Amino acid sequence: MYFGLSEDQEFFKDNVSKFLQDHAPLDVIKKIIEDDEHDLKNNIKNGLVNLGINSLLIPEEYGGLGLDLLFATAVSQSLGENIAPFSFLSSYVMAPIALINGGNTEQKEKYLKGILENNYKFGVGFSEFISARNDFGFIFKDNKINGKSIFVLDADDVSHLLLADENGVIGVVDTSDKNIEIIKLTTVDKTRSYSEVIFKNASIDVLENSITDIEPLKKSIDAGRIILAADSLGASEALIRKAVAYSKERKQFGRAIGSFQAVKHMCAEMASDLEPCYSLVWHAAHCFDNIPDESRLMACHAKSHVSEVSKVISKKATEVHGGMGFTDLMGIHYWFKRIGVNRQNLGSPETIREEAAKIQNL
After folding, report:
1. CATH code, 298
2. How confident is the model at residue 38 (pLDDT cuts 50, 70, 90)?
3. What is the reported pTM?
């Protein structure tokens, strides 16, 4: 059975793609990354927010569109396809879902409306819950936080940080607090930011419902994994398209390399490997809101499987480009690196498969 997107979901997806193609082509992406052009990055952010991206998952009672995760998944696919330097995952997916499920009435009113009105922007740090590391970790006590968090996503240029400790309790920290220090980390993916954050008795607003229920955190992580899978899905689609186009243009021995059987096979393998991933990701997003009994397992399957498939596609697409594929001139390394970092974000395929096994009591 084919599981596809509705007309409305395709509309959102196409609108985001069209905006990015017009305002964030590869030359602009390169300029943002190489010259740290904040104005260009802000123009992209403001344009996407004007399309309503920040209101997708916020319930109607708070002024949002109240749409389901499948809409956000369609948008994420376009963002990955165009390697947009935009923090969609943290501010507009994981934060709203954590707040909706974990916050009390006052907290939801404050933070969700702040996101909707574009006054609040969130970075997310859930690494301590997913996979603890030596010398990192923090403690929530008496509405204060102390310790260190690593690989906090999109922590630069945000108003708040959404953090989860090893017990699954979620808290919100205002980045204007003088008792926190944000240290930007260098990773291969320059289209998004990752940071280490140090807390020294900083104030934290703990989400009330997350104290006694771990479900708000798990739902936020499930949604994040599906969105990352969709991002890698879009990036893989772009790489296949670029590889096929290059194989038609590049000539060797007087013929286009796309006419050689080995290159044909590589392109066909990439397309056939990716095709089932569309339905897998879309079905996982559908389950999130409509089939709760299957939701967590499908999120694990989507993230782990697409991570492996997209890794192979990024490698083969680079090989089709030959030596040129490894140069900055072609620019395909941006998609290659994005896929690589997506693979590890919110749990590696190995970590997530172990979770899936436990869900099934294996």
Report:
1. 1.20.140.10
2. confident
3. 0.95
